[in-house]
């Protein structure tokens, strides 16, 4: 969950709900896998931590896990929740479902920061991800006329790209 204020982006809380594959550390991009119970509890914890935050809009990825996080974190704000296609996770192509360490070994990389360099061309290139997020930031700037705080509910690549 990322909160965007009128002057800058501020990270109120960097928390995402846990998914079914997460404990094993697999690439999970556009696979529409729901949250597990730990993820649901994390989303409820976001609700408790942000209870006093004045929110003008909650922009959420169309994937189930993000939608569920948004509805649990902002249960009384359903009218403010808006699906935003540009928040969808990176398309990892042939890496989807592959264990991260296996991919690192296969491509001879040693740091997770290098993963963006190995995204397959028939997936989504990191430059395309960054272009999407730049467009998203422009949308957010336009939305701020409605109020001071826009909340983003997305995925790992969202936080890295922004």
TrEMBL record:
Single Gene Ontology MF annotation: phosphatase activity
Cross-referenced Gene3D superfamilies: Phosphoglycerate mutase-like (3.40.50.1240)
SMART domains according to UniProt: PGAM (SM00855)
Cellular-component GO terms for this entry: cytoplasm
Pfam families in UniProt: His_Phos_1
UniProt cross-references to PANTHER family, sorted A to Z: BROAD-SPECIFICITY PHOSPHATASE YOR283W-RELATED, HISTIDINE PHOSPHATASE FAMILY PROTEIN-RELATED
Protein name: Phosphoglycerate mutase
Organism, scientific name: Puniceibacterium antarcticum
């Amino acid at each position: 969950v990322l909160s965007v204020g009128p002057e800058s982006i501020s990270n109120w809380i960097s928390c995402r709900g846990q998914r079914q594959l997460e404990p094993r550390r697999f690439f999970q991009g556009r696979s529409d896998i729901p949250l597990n119970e730990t993820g649901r509890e994390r989303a409820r914890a976001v609700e408790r931590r942000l209870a006093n935050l004045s929110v003008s809009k909650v922009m959420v990825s169309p994937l189930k896990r993000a939608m569920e996080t948004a509805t649990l974190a902002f249960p009384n704000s359903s009218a403010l929740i808006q699906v935003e296609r540009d928040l969808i996770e990176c398309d990892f192509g042939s890496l989807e479902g592959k264990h991260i360490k296996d991919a690192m070994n296969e491509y001879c990389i040693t740091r997770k920061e290098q993963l963006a360099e190995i995204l397959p061309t028939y997936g989504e290139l990191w430059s395309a991800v960054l272009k999407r997020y730049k467009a998203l930031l422009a949308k957010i700037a336009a939305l701020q006329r409605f109020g001071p705080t826009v909340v983003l509910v997305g995925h790992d690549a969202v936080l890295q790209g922004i």
